[in-house]
């Protein structure tokens, strides 16, 4: 496997430029193996095709079987054909996948944290047996229906409703900005009921359910984004998630997904820094390589500083999660910090590459555009700032 760091000229190498604090030495053998295996998949299968897929606005669905075969779907779940890995392993999976592209990491995040996790945590034994094995094997694809077009950062302002009708529920409403929606076999949908917000497993062939794809995106182009529409969809009570009511259900899922995002953003930032280091070593202006100038060295040093801080934050978060001590505010702080770090680095790397930086042949513009979505979805930067602010003051300013 030739990692991004290993592609940098040996004469320049001392410390790993993408891991200045040797975070890798803090990983156990299993964690290193998971990282190496995922990195090899990204280097060999994702990076060679992802620029073209992004340009075409196409999700490379042909990658799904190997993603599943590697055990990357529902990796933290025990049993049900899942790998049963720890949280740090899941984070490393997200980091390496997003080094390839945010769209690939988003697919795995949604399948793992927003579909398989709620079925595992809130579902019945029958629901787990029916859905988790095929989702883990990539034989079924799922999506997560929470966001609504008018709601945005206020999920409590939910208009989608489910009314009890005998042994069934009648679902009406819509969801917006749903990853995987148009290719999903199953949707975990959250709706208002007379007994609070509840989750429902909606199957693709249920009459009245439609999931048209959203086109003409300039971000996450190698990912499928859809709307979901429910017109008197009849859902049996056996498809209701029985073990949770209220917003704590969907918010608990988002905490799982946000944890992975904190790691994924590091991968995008590493890809951009690696390309900036490589490009500036070979670009000659005013009779010397660009990387010999103070301006470029200072800018890349700042990128490395910020990546290092993000790495330390996510590793600590992962250890807290595996110890059962992670708090949602800690996840908000890391999502806010790490995605802001990544988007700033992607923008600066794009600038360092000059005109070449706007082409699909180089990754910074692609990562930069993708991160505009990542910094918005699953809690905007402002929302996470306010979560931390509430923790500091005890006052809710939403």
* Global morphology: globular
Low-confidence stretches: none
Total number of helices: 10
At the fourth level of CATH, the homologous superfamily of the largest domain is Butyryl-CoA Dehydrogenase, subunit A, domain 3
Number of strands: 9
Would you tell me which CATH topology of the largest domain applies? Butyryl-CoA Dehydrogenase, subunit A, domain 3
Largest sheet: 4 strands, antiparallel
Helix content: 40-55%
CATH class of the largest domain: Mainly Alpha
Query: Gyration radius, to the nearest Å?
Result: 21 Å
Pattern of helices and strands: HHHHHEEEEEEEHEEHHHH
Mean pLDDT: 95
Head-to-tail CA distance between termini: 47 Å
CATH architecture of the largest domain: Up-down Bundle
Structural class: alpha+beta
Instruction: Provide the number of structural domains.
Output: 3
Strand content: 5-15%
Strand order of the largest sheet: 2-3-7-6
Please characterize this protein's 3D structure.
With 398 residues, the protein is an alpha+beta fold. The protein folds into 3 domains: 10-136, Butyryl-Coa Dehydrogenase, subunit A, domain 1 (Orthogonal Bundle), CATH 1.10.540.10; 142-239, Butyryl-CoA Dehydrogenase, subunit A, domain 2, CATH 2.40.110.10; 248-393, Up-down Bundle (Butyryl-CoA Dehydrogenase, subunit A, domain 3). The protein has helices at 29-56, 64-69, 87-100, 102-122, 125-136, 248-282, 294-322, 328-352, 364-374, 381-393; strands at 142-145, 161-165, 168-179, 186-193, 196-203, 209-210, 225-236, 284-285, 288-289. The strands form 3 sheets. A 4-stranded antiparallel β-sheet has the order 2-3-7-6, covered by helices on one side. A hairpin with a 2-residue loop joins strand 8 (284-285) and strand 9 (288-289). The longest helix is centred in the middle third of the chain and has 35 residues, at 248-282. It is globular and about 80 Å long. The N and C termini lie far apart (47 Å). The model has no long low-confidence stretch (mean pLDDT 95).
């Amino acid at each position: 496997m030739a990692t991004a760091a290993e592609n940098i000229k040996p004469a320049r190498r001392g410390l790993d430029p993408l891991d200045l604090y040797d975070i890798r030495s803090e990983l156990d053998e299993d964690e290193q193996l998971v990282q190496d295996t995922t990195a090899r998949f990204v280097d060999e299968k994702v990076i060679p095709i992802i620029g073209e897929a992004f340009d075409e606005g196409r999700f490379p669905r042909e990658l799904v079987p190997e993603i599943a075969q590697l055990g990357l779907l529902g990796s933290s779940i025990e049993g049900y054909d899942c790998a049963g890995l720890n949280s740090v392993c899941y984070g490393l999976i997200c980091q390496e996948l997003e080094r390839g592209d945010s769209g690939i990491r988003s697919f795995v995040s949604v399948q793992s944290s927003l579909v398989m996790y709620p079925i595992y945590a809130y579902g019945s034994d029958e629901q787990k047996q029916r859905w988790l094995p095929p989702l883990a094997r990539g034989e079924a694809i799922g999506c997560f229906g929470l966001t609504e077009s008018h709601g945005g950062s206020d999920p409590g302002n939910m208009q989608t409703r489910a009314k009890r009708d005998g042994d069934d529920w009648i679902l009406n409403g819509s969801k917006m900005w749903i990853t995987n929606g148009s290719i999903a076999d199953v949707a975990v949908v959250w709706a208002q009921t007379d007994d609070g917000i509840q989750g429902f497993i909606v199957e693709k062939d249920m009459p009245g359910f439609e999931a048209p794809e959203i086109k003409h995106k300039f971000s996450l182009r190698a990912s499928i984004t859809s709307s979901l529409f429910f017109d008197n969809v009849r859902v049996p009570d056996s498809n209701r998630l029985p073990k949770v009511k209220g917003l704590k259900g969907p918010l608990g899922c988002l905490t799982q997904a946000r944890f992975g995002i904190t790691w994924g953003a590091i991968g995008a930032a590493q890809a951009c820094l690696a390309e900036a280091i490589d490009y500036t070593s070979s670009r000659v202006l005013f009779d010397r390589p660009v990387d010999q100038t103070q301006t470029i060295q200072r800018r890349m040093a700042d990128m490395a500083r910020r990546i290092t801080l993000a790495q330390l934050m996510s590793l600590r978060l992962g250890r807290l999660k595996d110890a059962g001590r992670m708090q949602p505010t800690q996840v908000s702080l890391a999502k806010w910090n790490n995605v802001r770090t990544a988007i700033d680095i992607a923008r600066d790397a794009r600038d360092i590459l000059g005109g070449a930086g706007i082409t699909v042949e180089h990754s910074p513009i692609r990562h930069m555009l993708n991160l505009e979505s990542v910094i918005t979805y699953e809690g905007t930067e402002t929302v996470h700032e306010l979560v931390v602010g509430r923790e500091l003051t005890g006052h809710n300013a939403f």
